[in-house]
Structures are given as structure tokens and as C-alpha cells.
Amino acid sequence: MALRQLEKTYEPKQVEERWYRFWIDQGYFRASTDRSETPYTIVIPPPNITGSLHVGHALNNSLQDILIRWRRMQGRNTLWMPGTDHAGIATQNVVERQLMSEGSTREALGRDAFIKRVWDWKAQSGGTIIQQLKRLGASCDWDRLRFTMDEGLSKAVREVFVRLHEEGLIYRGERLINWCPRCLTALSDIEVEHEDQPGKLYHIRYPLADDPATFLVVATTRPETLLGDTAVAVHPEDPRHAALIGKSVRLPLTGREIPIVGDSILVDREFGTGAVKITPAHDFNDFEAGERHRLPRLTILDHQARLDPVGLRAALVDREIIEAVELLRVNQARPKIEQKLQERGLLVKVEAHKMALGKCYRCKTVVEPYLSPQWFVKIKPLAEPAIKAVEDGRVRLIPEAWTNNYLGWMRDIKDWCISRQIWWGHQIPAWYCRSCNVDAILETAHEGMATTEAQALPKASRKRITILSNAAPLVSRTAPTRCPACGGNDFFQDPDVLDTWFSSALWPFSTLGWPEQTPELKTFYPTSTLVTGLDILFFWVARMIMMGLKFTGEVPFRDVYIHALVRDAEGQKMSKSKGNVIDPLSVMDRYGTDALRFTLASMASPGRDIKLAEERIEGYRNFANKIWNAARFILMHLDGPRDPVPLKERSFADRWIMSRLNHTIGAVNTSLEQYRFDQAASQLYQFIWHEYCDWYLELAKPSLQDKESSEANRTRRTLLESFETLLRLLHPFMPFISEEIWQTVPHEGDSIVTQPYPSPTPDRESKDAEASFATLEQFVTTVRTGRALLNYQPGKKITLYGAAVREDHFASLQQLRPSIEHLSRGTVHLTAIETWPTDKVLRLVTEGISTGLAVEGEVDFESLLQKIQKQHKDNQQETKRLEGKLGNVEFTSKAPPEVIQEHRDRVRTLQQESRLLDSSERQLRTMMPAKD
RNA sequence: GGGCGGAUAGCUCAGUCGGGAGGGAGAGCGCUGCCCUUACAAGGCAGAGGUCACAGGUUCGAUCCCUGUUCCGCCUACCA
Q1: Which of A57, A123, A830, A931 has its CA at 20 to 30 Å from residue A115's CA atom?
Q2: A399 CA, B9 C1': separation in Å?
Q3: Shortest CA to C1' contact from A674: nucleotide
Q4: CA-closest candidate to residue A56, choices A148, A144, A129, A149
């Protein structure tokens, strides 16, 4: 039969497209609820619909695909559930930018039209990343593609919200929250990134009310907020200030007097001057201190973090100051305040001070603590079971090192602010009866405005609605029709939407149809493994565990594999502004998808960031090409009978490679069980290149070239068996090339995708063949070293001599003589060293195996001599070291006998080698042309 | 401030815990030399290159176990 021949180099591009289409057409990635096999489920970390594939996605999804393809081939009923995330703030930003370029705004469009516009955008551009995942070879069940804003998932969101509210685990209240003055929305604590920055510490004099010549000096990094101070705190046990408690100070730049309070929580006596200003409306600590001392809260910043004239007037700020700073952003107002304090002689000093500034994780704008009514999840009762699940191992974090990190965070968790003042997202299922909440619903300039700010606005400028914290919401799965209190039917839905992570937290079960008890949910939940990056451990993983336990009573997944961050070759974070981004799409174009996947897998060592350099990818592109050429070779030699013969009756080389293959199969499976993608990849690489190609294919050549021999039949048989198995072993890592080649070699079945994954079997083992191989390799390598030393052409046939210290090694050499002669390109005489010619032979030795090479032609005796002398010297040093140990009574009396015996054996071998090197050296000298 | 991780060849990293043993130090890439030998120059063969961060301790023996130090990352935190 004539087999298809392959091109000389592997061309990934058309191969990839062709097979991916085939796999989809055949429906190989479809999961079923009717199958009886053990399910294996992964839910994808849903990428953001505004996103496009970056190298982090490529890593994340390559690893998931490796797991999924591996389990699928093992016969599991696998489901890889794909989907995307609606990314509230990010997506709204994208569409708003689009509107802006058209000279419009979302306000001009109105809420409903805007949301429609986002859906239109999604229909057009939101599928990009899905297409890119397909290019990566991701074997997701695409028929089940989900989106967090789908009707089903939205229903799950409402269900969860209502139930949590019913249990008192969701509440609404006016709190200080993190506010992004650019996105104009609240953020949760973890959406704020902290970064150390150089700042200044201002020391400011606050004159005592009853003794204006005396000052209390406070230290602050934010002097402009003093306008909203409502107290000054000192430590009650601080002898410098304790007596002042109960008195008042005149607040600089204002007409107010504020009290001095004693507070041991807020004040650190060691820091600054030991006196702290309290601004309850603009600082988290001060907010709490304000609650402790029942202080008023004065809001002086507006929603854009500008000094708000209304608030400033309410805070009795001097007219002159108001005029100087009104509507300035904090960073612009600060120098003005500094200047005014200076002018009035109230500024003692300004010193450099590093401080951690909070920034919006989406837009990097400095966030402001902002007082406003928001929705919160009371998180402690949800966190407790989620802590327990990890503590008792129902959820495993891999690498384990992250467990403590997780537990620490969960034990110290704070209530979660879930309302966002944007339009794109799940609108909160809470309604307000207009007649019952007449005083609590205010028309304001914008949503989410602080209470005082909203109340202070003139009616005319109120465009939208703010719902004060005393409003009474009706939380319900559907819009209410009748107010239970007054019977009215005029309702107003809360305009806020939920944090995107609120819906993501439900992902493992909402995608499977929850709250319905669907067959999917019954079959595939709890899921098996979650593969994710460390950066969303708290954002997402922790919340999924909490919600999963709460609403299904079970953990959402058993294993959480946390992979590293991908950095550039210098270890820098990749970012568009630095221009050091490696674009996976371009990499796939140039090197092939398999090369990219294999690179990422091989570098996924636990607990270490990945420094990705393009040369690595190129290296694995070469690996793909190596496999390709091995396939070409095999296809060239497969013609002819290849009947099954028991392994025992096959050649040494056949038994050896099958034994090594078996070892590799075991190692790859074990590595995958442990999520050691790096180990699995290097085992495959090592075996395929350095055992299969370098040695086995070379060993197989003689018999393959003699087509008529019975040996050829057995070799062809082994060649096919081993290679076909190898392709299956490789497939999860390099799906495309493995399919392409597999389809060209004789096989059963329609696609490698659904073939069984190799598992180790004892009958492939052959310890004796492995031992013989070690001897052969030693001999052949030594001969090659000698050839290089003698400058012989690779093809030159030479006369060789061989001997071994150990009987069994010598026996192996005799038995494998044809192979040895083939690989050494020479005629080998296996006899005792004493019988070797005493002239014109270069003698070399390693590990007790001696080789002699006939010396002909021009030879660089000097370098030969150096080589021999160096080895001789190393040899003697090692002998001395070992003899020293063996002469030490401490060692011989306490070390285990095996170790002592091993040392003795090594000394003996070294001594024999030494004798050979001696004679070799002497001979060389006789061969050397006389000097002078 | 707290917690965690890392330091092994020029570069990137395995190896140490537990089936790679506490006893002779590995890989990939790069580098050097030779070779276009009919699977592969995206290749073959050979080679050079390491006080396993530093200082102590345990041990007959430490890259590995223990303690401390230095440097580098990351996470986390209300030091105004």
C-alpha cells in the first residue's frame, strides 16, 4: 500500500484550520448528559467580551485544553463550558467612547437605548475572543456558550439576590465606599489597587478655641480635606495632649470650632505629632472614628472628586477659600490650601512621606472614599463555610502554597459593595413605591450622589434619581404590581446594577441551568477543576466557593489550579504602554499554535512567574518540525508487512524503545495528575527528541533498509505501534500536528481526539534492554568523542576495539555488535585490552567501558594528550576523595553498607580506568612525532 | 507593618518536600569545533561552562534538613 508522503517542513496554518473545522463538524467536543462515564468538567474563566486574546489567556486556556483533551481521551464524559463575561464597567466604557466619538453620550441616548446599543456592540464585536480561543485549539463545548447577561444566568442572579436579601445577607445602607471619580461608580475594596507613591506630610496648626495662641499640630497627607474635619483626635494616654480632650480647636480656613476627642484606636502616638484630624466623610478610618464619637459628616467633595461649593458652604468654609478652590480637583486644590495655610502662618512644615494611593483597577484614576447609599453583601456568614471547605480539603488549591493566602483573606473579609452606578449589567431587583418613599427619592444631578450633596442641590438641576438610605425597597424576582404597605402601584426600580463579579460568582452552576435542577447540573456539578490566575483568586474563586456552597450545598469545584503570570523575557509585566507585549495571535501565525501551547505548558512551573521569550517558542516550533520529519521517515519505511509479533520476540532496540515509551507514558500521566504541565512537556520533549529520534530511529535503520528481512517486519511493527502511541500521548499538548500525522499513519478510528490515552502496561517493560542500551550508548558516545578528537569525517569507516570491566557490559557489547558497528560507523573487535594493538590506537574509557580507535592520517596529538591527561587527573582526584572517605572509620562504621559498597565499586572502576589512561598516554607519546 | 515565594551554567529554569533517595550536579536556549551522512541545517555529532546567594548548625557526609543574614519579587494592610 502506498502511504501519503509529507512535505519537508511542517506548515501549521492550513493544518490547524482544517482539523479544527473537522472536530467541530464531528461534534467531538460535545458533552452529554446521557453518558454513563464519569464526568470531567471545567468551566472556563469567562473572558471579558471587550477583550482580545493575550498571552495570559493563551496560557490559561492551553492548560485547560490539555486537561480536557487528556480526560476526554481517557474516556471521561468531559465538558468544557465556555462563555464570556459582560464586564460592566469596561464594556460601558468602550461603548461610551464610541458614543463620544459620535458626539453623543449615554445620557443623551437614555438608558434603554444605551443598553440596546451595548447589545448591538456585543453582537458585532463581542465574539472576537471566542474565535481566538478556537484558534488556540480550545475544545470547548461551543454549543453551550454562555454569557453572564443571558436570560438564564440573569434569572440566577435575581434568584440569588432575592434569597440573600430575604436572609438578611444583602442590605442597603449609606457607607463610605471606594468611588471612582472617572467611572462615576462605587467599587468594591478589591477593585482598588494600592501603589506606594512619594507624597507629603503636612504639619498644620489648629489653634485652641479658648487659647488661640496655643496650637495643636496635626499631621496629614491630605490638607484639603481639613475643610471637612469635624474633630481632632489625640491618644487618651498621651501625656502631651491628654489634657486637651474635651476642649475645642478653631478649624483653620473655616468658621467652625471642632472638638478634641480621645481615641486610642485611631491615634498612633508614635506617628507624626500624635494628633489626627478626623474627616468622617472622606476617610475610612475617620468614618469609623466618627461613628465612635458621634461626629457629623461633612461632604466637601463632589462625585468627580472636586471641591464642592455647596458642601464647602455647609461646612462654613471661609468665602475666600471657597472661591479659591471650588470645583477644583483635589490635586489642584491641595497647593492652594497649602498656600493659604502658609499665608496664615498655620503651616509648620511639610516633609516627604511615602503613601499608598488607591487607584481604580479599570482606569487607574485615584479613587476617593465617598459617602453614598449602596448595596452590600454581608459576607462573614458566607465566608465561614468557604473557609471550612478549603481547610478540610473539599476544595484543593494547587500549588498548596496559596491556601494560607486564601484563608488569611477570607478570615479577614469585609462586606462586599455590590452596587455600581452604571447601566450595563444586572439591574438590581429592588423597587420603591413612590408614595411610600416620597421623602427618600430625590431627583439629583447624577446617580449615586451623596445624600448631603443631593439634598443641597436646587430642584432645577436634579436630573436623575437618588434613593436615600432610608428608602424601603421591595426586593423581588419580578417587578411588583402592588405595594404591600399602601396598595399603590407606582414603582421605581433601583437604577444601580450589580458588580459583574456578582454574576461571575454563580458561573459554575448558573451556566449549568441553576436554579432549575437541570440534567446538566446533576451530571456536571460540582465541576472538577478550575484553572485560573492568581490575580482573580479573591475576585472570583473565593466568591464562587461562597456562592456555590450557599446555593447548591456543594463546592463548585474540587481542584483549583493556579497558574503563574506571564511576563516578558526581562521579567517585566507585559503592557501595551511598555510595548513589550507578545501577541499570541502573531506567535501562532509565525510558529504555529502547537508550538505556542507547548511552550506555555513547558514553562508552567508552579509558583513561579513565566518569563516568555520568543526564542523559546521558536525552539518548540523546531520540536514540532522534528516530529514532522520523524513522521516522514517512518512513512517512508512503513511499506511492507508488519504483522504482530510478541514484544519478547522483537529486537533489542524494539524492546528498549517500548520500555522507554512505557516509562514516558507513566511519567506524563503522573505529571498531569499533579498538574505538572512543565514536567509532562519536558518528558515528552526528552523522549521524542533524544530517545526516539536520536537513538531509536537510528537503531532501526539497518533493518528497515533491508526490506526483505524478517527483522524488518518486526521493526515496522514496532515503529508503527510506538509512533502511533506517541502521537496519542502528545495530542493534548500539540493537538494539531498530532492529528495531522496520526491521520496519515495507519490507524483505527476517525480522529485522534477520541482515541484512548496511553496508560502504562507492564508488558512494555524491558529492564534488560534498558541496561544493554546504557552500555551501547556509553560505547558509541565514547567512539564519537574519539572521532571528533581524531578529526575523522562522520562517514569514515574505522577499526574499533572494545572491552568492559564488567562481564555483563561485555556481554551486551557482544550481543549488540551489529547495532554498535552501525552507530559507530566502524568494525568493532571485542577482545581483552591486553590483546589490542599496542600502536596506532587511541584508547578512551568511560564508566568502565573501554574503546580503541585506530589512528590514521593527520592527528593533533597534543590536544589528544591534553584530553587524556585531564581525564586522568580528574580521575585521580575522585579516586583520592573516595579513598579518603573509605579510610575514615566514622564513614565506614556509620554509613549504610550499600553506600560503602558503591564507593568501593567506583574506586575499582576508576582504578581500572586509570590504568587504561596510563597506557593510553604512554602510547600517545610513542606515536607523537619527536619534538625538537 | 504582616504574610508568602525566589536566589542552582552566559540566559530561562528543573531537581530538595512525598516514586527521581542526604553520598558522583541536570535540561532548554545560547556559545565553541566538526559535518549540507537520502527523516529533519527549524538538522546531526562532539565540547566548554557551576564555591548550587552568604554565615552558622544537625549529620560519618548537606544544593537538599534547621537557624540567621543579604538581595529580588509578589500578595496584603487604616500608620494620618
Answers
A1: A57
A2: 28
A3: B18
A4: A129
Q: Write down the pLDDT at residue A83.
A: 95
State whether residue A360 is helix, strand or coil.
strand
Rounded Cα gap, residues A711 and A273, in angstroms: 92
Q: Which nucleotide is closest to A867, CA to C1'?
A: B47
Average pLDDT over residues A570-596: 81
Q: In this model, does residue A574 exceed pLDDT 80?
A: no
Residue A460 has pLDDT above 50, yes or no: no
Which nucleotide does the CA of A792 lie closest to, via C1'? B34
- Within residues 515-554 of protein chain A, the ones with CB less than 7 A from nucleic strand B are 534-535, 538
Amino acid at A686: Q
The cell numbers describing A388, all together, are 471550612
CB proximity list for A851: less than 8 A, separation 6 or greater:
A779, A782, A783, A786, A800, A801, A802, A843, A844, A845
Taking the C1' atom of B5, which residue's CA lies nearest?
Answer: A607
pLDDT category, A2, cuts 50, 70, 90? very low
Q: How far apart are CA A109 and CA A444, in angstroms?
A: 18
Cβ of A904 less than 7 A from strand B? no
Q: Compute the distance between CA of residue A864 and CA of residue A853 in angstroms, rounded to an integer.
A: 12
Nucleotide nearest to A537 (CA to C1'): B75
- Integer distance in angstroms from CA A918 to C1' B23? 28
Our measurement of CA A282 to C1' B29, in angstroms, reads 54
Q: Which nucleotide C1' is nearest A902 CA?
A: B23
Nearest nt by C1' to A534 Cα = B75
Note the pLDDT tens digit of each residue in A159-217.
Answer: 999 999 999 999 999 888 999 988 889 988 888 888 777 788 899 999 998 988 888 89
State the SS3 of A814-844. Answer: HHCHHHHHHHHCEEEEECCHHHCCCCCEEEE
Spatial CA neighbour of A51 closest among A43, A64, A61:
A61
| Predicted structure pTM score | 0.91
Q: Are A797 and A826 in contact (CB under 8 A)?
A: yes
The mean-pLDDT minimum among A99-113, A675-689, A720-734 falls in A99-113
Q: ipTM value, please give it.
A: 0.92
Q: Which residue in the block uniquely carries the three cell numbers 454513563?
A: A36
Give the separation between CA A129 and CA A147, rounded to whole angstroms. Answer: 13
| Cβ(A810)–Cβ(A803) below 8 Å | yes
Among candidates A402, A412, A391, which has minimal Cα distance to A536? A402
Nucleic chain B contacts, protein chain A, residues 160-219, CB cut-off 7 A: 189-190, 194, 196, 201, 218-219
- Which chain B nucleotides are covered by protein, judged by CB under 7 A? 3-6, 11-15, 18, 21, 23-24, 27-30, 33-35, 37, 39-47, 59-61, 73-80
Q: Is the CB of A405 under 7 A from strand B?
A: yes
pLDDT value for A732: 96
Residue pLDDT, tens place only, A476-509: 999 999 988 888 888 989 999 999 999 999 999 9
Read off the pLDDT of residues A781-816 as tens digits, 9 standing for 90 and up.
999 999 988 888 888 899 999 999 888 999 999 999
- Is A535 a residue whose pLDDT tops 70? yes
Find the Å distance, CA of residue A466 to C1' of nucleotide B17: 58
The answer to whether strand B lies under 7 Å from the CB of residue A815 is no
Q: How confident is the model at residue A930 (pLDDT cuts 50, 70, 90)?
A: low
**Residue A358 CA to nucleotide B76 C1', Å?**
14
Question: In the predicted model, what is the mean pLDDT of residues A290-318?
Answer: 90
Which nucleotide is closest to the Cα of A535 by its C1'?
A: B75
Q: Which long-range contacts (CB under 8 A, 24 or more apart) does A322-330 make?
A: A325/A224, A329/A304, A329/A305, A330/A222, A330/A224, A330/A301, A330/A305, A330/A306, A330/A366, A330/A368
CA A671 to C1' B20, whole Å:
13
pLDDT at A522: 95
Pair A163, A173: CB distance under 8 Å: no
